[in-house]
Design brief:
With 245 residues, this protein is mostly beta strands. It is built from 2 helices and 12 strands, in the order ααββββββββββββ.
């Protein structure tokens, strides 16, 4: 059984906060999926005006669709500011992310369109990215949408290089498997567990494709047949990248 399958199963069927942390040990004794080797992906240099346009959908039989635009609007000693706008038939919102350095997020989304303030910064990408690299992070955060504090666990494993075709073209991209346990547990349900696969392409200083699945389990007597509820099934693909000046 490969590393990624172990991670998904282990997080899915445990209801404890130590679940994702234990994956570090599991990953060390498993076999990775076969992907191409290559050089490390170094940290990018962002410029004001860098702009990524994505096409996204989330759902099953009748998915929600939207276009998502990310644009760097400021850079400086205090970090990088990115404006994120989502627009579709049933989607219309704008938010702002703040990055301390490339890959390190001070404020931004983790699961959906929420804005979270992280302390310490969330290591979205631990540059330089290299095949076999992994990191496991517990992060305190304040969810501005839910207006509450929490703590999430995020584990990332870097797979290797692949050729990824998107509406914006074909790119050499390094794949990252992300497994998360969120902080949204309630008296009637377990916390959400997320299983994401991202492809980061140095040529565009960002992801070119993302596949995102998430679910949570209802609490109760096992004899009642606790349900597993799928809460996310999304695909995001790059449509256009414009470099800033």
């Amino acid at each position: 059984m490969d590393t990624e399958r172990i991670m998904v199963l282990f997080v899915r069927y445990t209801g404890r906060l130590f679940a994702v942390a234990a994956l570090v040990a599991l990953a060390g004794c498993a076999v990775l999926e076969s992907t191409g080797s290559g050089p490390a992906a170094e940290a990018p240099t962002f410029r004001v005006g860098d702009r990524w346009v994505y096409r996204a959908q989330d759902g099953f039989r009748v998915p929600v669709v939207w276009d998502e635009t990310h644009e760097v609007i400021a850079t400086g000693p205090d970090g990088i500011t990115v404006r994120v706008a989502q627009k579709g038939p049933t989607v219309d919102n704008v938010r702002t992310e703040r990055w301390a350095t490339p890959g390190r997020v001070l404020a931004g989304a983790l699961f959906d369109t929420e804005t979270r303030r992280f302390s310490p910064a969330l290591d979205r990408y631990a540059f330089p990215l290299q095949q076999g690299q992994a990191w496991n992070q517990w992060v305190d955060n304040y969810d501005e949408s839910a207006r509450k504090d929490g703590r999430i666990n995020r584990y990332v494993r870097v797979r290797g290089w692949e050729k990824i075709s998107t509406p914006a073209g074909t790119f050499d991209a390094i794949a990252l498997r992300v497994t998360m346990r969120l902080d949204d547990e309630e008296f009637w349900r377990e916390a959400t567990t997320c299983n994401y696969l991202l492809w980061y392409a140095p040529a565009v200083r960002g992801t070119v494709r993302e596949e995102k699945d998430a679910e949570y389990r209802e609490k109760g007597d096992p004899m009642d047949g606790m349900a597993s509820i799928r809460s996310q099934h999304a695909t995001i693909e790059l449509v256009q990248f414009t470099a800033g000046r």
